[in-house]
Prior knowledge:
The protein is α/β, with parallel strands linked by helices.
Amino acid sequence: MTDSTSVPARAARVSGMVRIVGAGLLGSSIGHALRALGVDVALADASPAQLRLAIDYGAGRAARVDDRPVLIVVAVPPDVTADVIERELILFPEAVVTDVASVKLDPLRTLRARGVDLTHYIGSHPMAGRERGGAISARADIFVGRPWVVCRDAETPASDLALVEGLALDLGATPIEMTPEEHDAAVALISHVPQLVASLLAGRFVDAPDGSMRLAGQGVRDTTRIAASAPELWVQILGANARPVVDVLDALADDLRGVADALRDPETPGARRTVADTIRRGNDGVERLPGKHGQNRRFETVVVMVDDTPGQLGRLFGELGELQVNVEDLRLEHSPGAQFGLAEISVVPGAVRQAVDGLQARGWKIASTTND
């Protein structure tokens, strides 16, 4: 069974039955989270096999013809999102309908062009997911601490808005109101183009010598992690949000050409400055990324050598707890052929010395810190 215990046991803000159309990763994850709060969840999916799998894993029950949902969540691929929204609005005229598609403007334009009454429709998008899809990969906690964009308009009833934002809050997410245009431009920059960049870079590995690939470390793994995503889904997402994505790609291509030109002859006056400014601008951009709990906080790192034996990582965490050092983030890297790994631990700046001195006193080897 998929673990749903990470969602706190409390009363749900969404009262009444919730119908989820689409029992893939997001739909099933929403189902798990709501069921953990005691909500009656009815699942529907065009694929009988996918639906049975989601039900077997505990994401909800099968939808019935006499269901009367208060909220409908459409979690289907982008190319059929508008069709399913239209159908659900007709079938359940008293329910509020939202969708979790990663593109908001394209389905909205389609629905408006068809003359669909959108009074009880509110587009939304949880900024959450995993590299692997399907009901088998669903988790109740993937929305915790993540932004959940809600695209309301002037005609949206306050009660409908409260229901959709209540859903986000029930799942541990943070509702953020944006227009569909603002949303699509934002996800082009922070989601869609990064997917393409990761895929393009990882694609260079296909014909790379085996010797080169044996040198791969955590940096390249971090950079290309999302390249494992499903091509079929991303063809739809990128096609639906093509214009904002192209705008970012064109600007990125200009930046790449500028760096490439500088490196063709590094001795040319200004070439090194171009490279340095590129790296520095990246530093500034990283500083703006929200960290733990959405905070724009700068953490420092302590890299600890950990023997590749059972229980060592647990012992490290336990001793950090004894030292009153909170772990803000963690990355693990294993060196090929080595009998140890490197645990890169992020802590608040004031805790670095406390962590280093305390761990060394307990016999841990410190490979490096941010200030090294």
